[in-house]
């Protein structure tokens, strides 16, 4: 069975969808949230993103028919992925901040990160005057 003929590509539509996909990448939103905000159908967005990626791969893997002159490679739009930047100082402080336990009528117990729960239980029992 012969392959189904494709419709000719519409450069204006491709440019339009490339712009939408770039806005999504800059937005940091999920596909669903972005499409909801923009009034788009998730399925259309995902189809165009997949199709444009396929076209870009086609361009980069297509080999020109042998010629004596070196032909320039077609330009390919860069693909950007969302990045979450985390303040390393805040993360380090969160991981190294000890736990403080204020016992009624008694001392303050500072428990470091990575403590042994059984040992802590034994210490608290002694400090509260209970038997271990």
Walkthrough of the structure:
- 49% of the residues lie in helices and 6% in strands.
- By secondary structure, it is mostly helical.
- Among the domains are: 51 residues; 40 residues, no CATH class.
- Helix 1 crosses helix 3.
- The mean pLDDT is 79.
Strand content: 5-15%
Structural class by secondary-structure content: mainly alpha
Q: What is the number of helices?
A: 5
Rg, Å, rounded: 30 Å
H and E order: HHHHEEH
Number of strands: 2
> Looking at the structure, what is the overall shape?
rod-shaped
Give the strand line-up of the largest sheet: 1-2
Mean pLDDT: 79
Into which percent range does the helicity of residues fall?
Answer: 40-55%
Biggest beta sheet attributes: 2 strands, antiparallel
Tell me the distance between the termini.
81 Å
Give the uncertain stretches in residue-range form. Answer: none
């Amino acid at each position: 069975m012969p392959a189904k003929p494709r419709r000719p590509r519409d450069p204006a539509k491709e440019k339009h969808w490339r712009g939408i996909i770039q806005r999504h990448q800059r937005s940091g939103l999920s596909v669903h949230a972005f499409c909801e905000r923009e009034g788009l159908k998730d399925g259309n967005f995902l189809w165009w993103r997949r199709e444009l990626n396929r076209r870009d791969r086609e361009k980069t893997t297509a080999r020109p028919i042998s010629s004596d002159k070196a032909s320039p490679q077609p330009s390919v739009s860069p693909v950007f992925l969302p990045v979450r930047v985390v303040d390393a100082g805040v993360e380090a402080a969160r991981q190294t901040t000890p736990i403080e336990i204020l016992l009624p009528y008694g001392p303050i117990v500072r428990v470091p990160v990575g403590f042994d729960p059984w040992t802590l239980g034994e210490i608290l029992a002694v400090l509260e005057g209970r038997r271990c």
